[in-house]
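forwarding from the other thread:

> can someone predict this with magnesium ion?

sure thing
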Amino acid sequence: MKRTVKDLVNLKGKVVLVRVDFNVPLDNAGRILDTTRIDQALPTIKYLSEQGAKVVVMSHLGRPEGYEIRKSLWQISLILMEKLSCKVYFCNTVIGQEAKDRIKIMQDGDVLLLENLRFYPEETACDMKFAKEIASLGDLYVDDAFGVAHRKHASNYGVARILPNAIGLLMEKEMTTLTDSMENPKHPFVVIVGGAKVSSKIKILKKFVEICDTLMIGGAMAYTFLVASGVAVGNSIVYHENVVDAQEIIKSAEEKGKKLLLPVDHVVIREGDKKKKKFVVDKMVDDMIGCDIGPKTIELFEKEIKGAGQIFWNGPLGLYEDEKFKDGTNKIAKAVAQSSAYSIVGGGDSVSAVKKSGYAGKIDFLSTGGGATLKYLEDGSLPCIDVIQEKIR
Ligand code: ADP
Ligand code: 3PG
Ligand code: MG
């Protein structure tokens, strides 16, 4: 068991560095579209502040190449000021004299947000000199950034190897919920996987076949599986290098007596049709491109969802970003929300699609991780969790 922030004692006056994942979606003007990741990190920050620690918060935002004003964390400090009752300050550097001076004048219980870690190329390079400079700012390190815990970067992987450390409350919640969902699933365990990139999901699909009762595949993923079962998919996206993997997964489901459901009808467009006129077909031919699951498939999936004890969903079932092709994803979101099953949604696009659908409030657990969630489910841990100290018994 990893040491958590609650295991840290005598925090009054201590400088605690807290790594969070404030990598929130921005619009083209740099405005924040959704504050979930900020909200989810508040309990750890509040707890440390209430214990009298000087709380130094750090995060990345986006993938900037050098300084980009749109990706400054300054606007997030304004949100923190609104949401926290303690004093909140901002420092427009991460390391160096300015950061040191700002920390020196902090009172117990104050919060200081540092600038975007990724304005420094040393962050993603996991430069240990940079990690040491960050570590020199504080007495203790708390990792609450589940969403980026699959990346070995200086501020998480590096700093954890230097300072006494613990995981934060969000990290703990993600770990216990996801571990429990894989180790003690409520049956029937229904898994829905969609999205685009088959190669990044093969490993987790193989694991899901072992533990779930029903596996439903939609989105662009489905066409590779349809090809693997000898069904024509017209000009839809197929990951030819993964057809053999898909065949193995289909075979494994058969051998284990698991239900594996693929789409039985499709919303398609014709290649080259600039107006993108959509049709519903049972069989795709020639120049048809699948963009969403069809109404019969929705019904088929809804039936399984209704009878489920637990649901895990990753990956939109169609090109949900386009109004024309969001029906499958939205109807499945509604069905998952209305089912009495314990429901978990994980994945960057999946969570954002569910939020857009308006049913997010009825999902039991929305993971804050994208790639991190799938990696955690695959491996049962993440590199940045591994470097955190164990609880002292
Ligand atoms: P997540 O981030 O939740 O893990 P992915 O990144 O795997 O999900 O997949 C999301 C992407 O999959 C979305 O951009 C969506 O448009 C795309 N997608 C889903 N269905 C289709 C389809 N039929 N054709 C093309 N792209 C699709
Ligand atoms: C995420 O949004 O998945 C995390 O914040 C990690 O971001 P990254 O993929 O840019 O490392
Ligand atoms: Mg994605």
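The chain has a mean pLDDT of 96. thats all i got for now
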